[in-house]
């Protein structure tokens, strides 16, 4: 029984830290999705279960008779986790199905979730008298106290999760996720069978057997979370893999906490032969041997992560350069915002460029360090030489931007000014080409207008001369004379229009701000 006690201590401590790890990761990289919210509450429910079990186990170790208040508090945490675990587990699978587009009818989802959460009220009323009567608490085998109905409820939740995992397996986009969902489906089926075995025949299992089976179930419950941690680091599962530095930092922190807990336990075991301070000093000194290998391993990991980020930035820079060659600055801004948001999985990205003609104080900067320019950690300045071209503002899903993502964004912002300048030059070149083509078109129109005017004025002049001679004939009838005058007026109007067209065809060159002038008296005399 002594070995089982130590196994429980390790399992409950590791389970508590593992759930706390996932809660910290989700809070650090939270997205505006219900899946992450429900996942957080699932980790919280398991944290209550492991934390309450660990507290109850420590109380039994350190006290001959555990204080009733401490036992009631540990029981409240433990049963809160157990009663909320089945509905939250079903809810999590439905939210994951929604993110994958596998859930077609939201009304059916609401009905299933309402049915899943409804039993919490029943079991809450059942748990209250157990907490009031400490003698009825079975904190090391808590499922026995909740009875057969709870076993059916929990087993049904696992079977629903098994069925949904089979659907996820059929729709998995790649081999790693197919393997993950396949193994997870087997896990839910196996743990559902064990839950039925634990709760369906409480009379057939002794208290020791129930405690062993409960410990085994608690150990098995940690496996999916550990596998998901590996999937996150290797394949960016659940879109959390971009925060590798965060995952590494939290992992090292909780491993250190777990090791310190181990040091304390070993010190307690060896207290009859060795002082606890000496045991702690020896075990902490042992860590010095592992510092260099750990540093080497994590150094390679961080270097590989940085190289991966730089390669991704290089590919993104090439895409931006290709888009810049289109010569459309407004379109390039939208393209940069969209691609940066997609590549770095950010909630919002906004590129704000300095306008031409802004004051020099807005554009010119001194030679101070680049870090001093970014007062807001979510702003990345675009600097070229001693001139600021704008700023890239990003909003992450979580509270912070990880170190690798920040380094990649800073490197990208060093490349963006060149692409923006290229786009402006090509845009200016295209504008000049369009202006030149427009002028050539107008010149061609002018040449055509001059040719038309020249070819039409000569016939009109001849017609005008003939009609004027006809008007000088005194024998011309009055009716024809009136019509001839009308034709002469129309010819004059046509000549005026042709003169205007000819004037349009001649290029007007006026230097600087010179003002044209005309002597009206000389023009009248002429």
Structure description:
The structure is a single chain. This protein is mainly alpha-helical. It has helices at 2-28, 34-62, 68-99, 106-117, 119-132, 142-170, 175-200, 207-221, 223-235, 244-269, 276-324, 329-344, 360-363, 403-471, 478-505, 520-525, and strands at 348-353, 379-384, 387-395.
Q: How would a textbook summarize the main sheet?
A: 3 strands, antiparallel
Question: How many helical elements?
Answer: 16
Secondary-structure-derived class:
mainly alpha
- The ordered H/E elements are HHHHHHHHHHHHEHEEHHH
- Shape category: elongated
Q: How many β strands by DSSP?
A: 3
Mean pLDDT: 79
Percent of residues in beta strands? under 5%
- Poorly predicted residue ranges: 357-374
Order the strands across the largest sheet as they lie in space.
1-3-2
* Portion in helices: over 70%
| C-alpha-based Rg, rounded | 42 Å
The N- and C-terminal alpha carbons lie at a distance of: 129 Å
SSE topology sketch:
Blueprint: H1 2-28, H2 34-62, H3 68-99, H4 106-117, H5 119-132, H6 142-170, H7 175-200, H8 207-221, H9 223-235, H10 244-269, H11 276-324, H12 329-344, E1 348-353, H13 360-363, E2 379-384, E3 387-395, H14 403-471, H15 478-505, H16 520-525
Antiparallel strand pairs: 1-3, 2-3
């Amino acid at each position: 029984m002594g070995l089982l006690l130590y196994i429980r201590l390790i399992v409950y401590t590791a389970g508590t830290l593992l759930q706390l790890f996932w809660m910290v990761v989700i809070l650090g990289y939270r997205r505006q999705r219900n899946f992450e919210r429900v996942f957080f509450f699932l980790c919280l429910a398991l944290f209550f279960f492991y934390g309450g079990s660990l507290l109850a186990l420590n109380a039994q170790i350190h006290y001959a008779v555990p204080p009733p208040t401490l036992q009631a508090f540990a029981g409240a945490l433990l049963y809160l986790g157990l009663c909320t675990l089945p509905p939250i587990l079903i809810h999590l699978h439905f939210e994951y199905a929604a993110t994958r587009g596998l859930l077609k009818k939201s009304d059916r989802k609401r009905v299933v979730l309402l049915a899943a959460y409804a039993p919490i009220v029943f079991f809450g009323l059942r748990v209250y008298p157990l907490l009031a009567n400490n003698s009825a608490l079975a904190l090391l085998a808590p499922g026995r106290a909740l009875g057969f109905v709870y076993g059916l409820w929990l087993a049904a939740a696992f079977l629903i999760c098994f069925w949904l995992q089979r659907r996820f397996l059929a729709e998995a986009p790649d081999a790693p996720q197919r393997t993950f969902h396949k193994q997870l489906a087997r896990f839910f089926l196996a743990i559902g069978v064990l839950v039925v075995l634990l709760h369906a025949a409480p009379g057939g299992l002794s208290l020791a057997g129930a405690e062993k089976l409960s410990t085994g179930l608690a150990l098995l419950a940690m496996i999916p979370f550990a596998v998901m941690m590996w999937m996150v680091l290797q394949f960016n599962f659940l879109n959390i893999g971009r925060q590798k530095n965060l995952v590494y930092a939290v992992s090292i922190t909780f491993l250190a906490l777990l090791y310190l807990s181990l040091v304390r336990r070993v010190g307690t075991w060896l207290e009859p032969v060795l002082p606890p301070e000496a045991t702690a000093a020896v075990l902490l000194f042992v860590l010095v041997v592992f510092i260099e290998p750990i540093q080497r391993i994590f150094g390679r990991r961080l270097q590989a992560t940085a190289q991966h980020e730089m390669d991704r930035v290089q590919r993104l820079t090439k895409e931006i350069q290709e888009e810049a060659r289109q010569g459309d600055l407004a379109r390039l801004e939208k393209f940069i915002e969209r691609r940066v948001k997609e590549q770095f999985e950010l909630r919002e990205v906004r590129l704000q460029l300095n306008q031409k003609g802004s004051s020099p104080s807005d554009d010119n900067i001194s030679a101070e360090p680049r870090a001093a320019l970014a007062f807001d950690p979510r702003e990345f300045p675009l600097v070229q030489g001693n001139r600021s071209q704008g700023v890239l503002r990003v909003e992450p899903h979580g509270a912070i931007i990880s170190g690798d993502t920040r380094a990649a964004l800073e490197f990208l912002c060093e490349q963006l000014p060149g692409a923006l300048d290229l786009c402006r030059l090509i845009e200016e070149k295209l504008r000049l080409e369009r202006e030149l083509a427009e002028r050539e078109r107008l010149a061609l129109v002018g040449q055509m207008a001059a040719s038309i005017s020249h070819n039409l004025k000569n016939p009109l002049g001849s017609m005008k001369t003939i009609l004027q001679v006809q008007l000088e004939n005194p024998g011309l009838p009055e009716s024809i004379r009136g019509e001839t005058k009308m034709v002469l007026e129309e010819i004059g109007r046509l000549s005026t229009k042709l003169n205007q067209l000819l004037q349009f065809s001649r290029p007007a060159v006026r230097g600087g701000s010179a003002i044209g002038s005309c002597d009206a008296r000389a023009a009248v005399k002429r």
